[in-house]
From TrEMBL:
Keywords: ATP-binding, Cell cycle, Cell division, Cell membrane, Membrane, Nucleotide-binding. Belongs to the ABC transporter superfamily. The gene is ftsE. The keyword Nucleus does not apply. The keyword Metal-binding does not apply. This is Cell division ATP-binding protein FtsE. GO terms for biological process: cell division. It comes from Metabacillus fastidiosus.
Amino acid sequence: MIEMTNVSKTYPNGVLAVNNINVKINKGEFVYVVGPSGAGKSTFTKMMYREERPTSGKIIINGTDLSTLKESKVPLLRRNIGVVFQDFRLLPKLTVFENVAFALEVIGENPREIKRKVLDILDLVQLKHKARFFPDELSGGEQQRVSIARSIVNNPGVVIADEPTGNLDPDTSWEIMYLFEEINNRGTTIVMATHNKEIVNTMKKRVIAIEAGKIVRDEARGEYGFYEYD
C-alpha cells in the first residue's frame, strides 16, 4: 500500500526533516507514527498525500510513484487517500451533511449517490441526527467525527491522521480511536501520527518511531516510548 525508499526531505531553510527513510506499510495495517516534537512525523505523513515532496528518494502509494506524479494527477491520487487533521478543517458555513458531501461533489458523484453515501457514513460515525447542524454547533469530538466521515466517504484505501485526538479530552479521544479501529477492521489502512502515549500503549498496533528524521524503531506491537520534550 505504501512504500518509501531512501526518502529524504530538506526544507528551503536547510532543515533536514526526514533523513533516508525506508519503510513499507501493507494493506490493512494500523500504524502509529510516534516521536518527539520536531522529529519529522508530520513531514513523513504529509509526503504520503503529496502535501510535501521528498528532496530525494521514491514514494509509492497503491502502485503510484509520487516522485514522478504530475501535479494535475494529485487530485486523483487524493481520492483514494483520506486525511484527518488535529484542527478538523471543516467548512464553517456548510452543514455536517454538506461538509461530508463536498468530498463527493468535487469528483462529480451524482446527487442520489451522494445522499446515500453521506447518510451511511454519518450513521457510521453516529451523527446522522446532526446532519443539518453547522460545525460551531458541535462539540470538538463531534467535529472530529465529521472530519473522519469526510475522509472516508470516498471509501479510500488509506487514511492518514495527524494528531487526530490532539484537541480532545481523554474520553472523547477514546471514542475517536474506537471509530478508527472500526474503519481499520473494514479493511482501510490507517497511518496515524500521535503524541498520545496511553492510546498507543493500550491498543498495541504497529509503531514506527521517528527521531531526528530517522526511523529508530519499527515494532509490530509496539509502545510509545519516552520522549523528554513531549
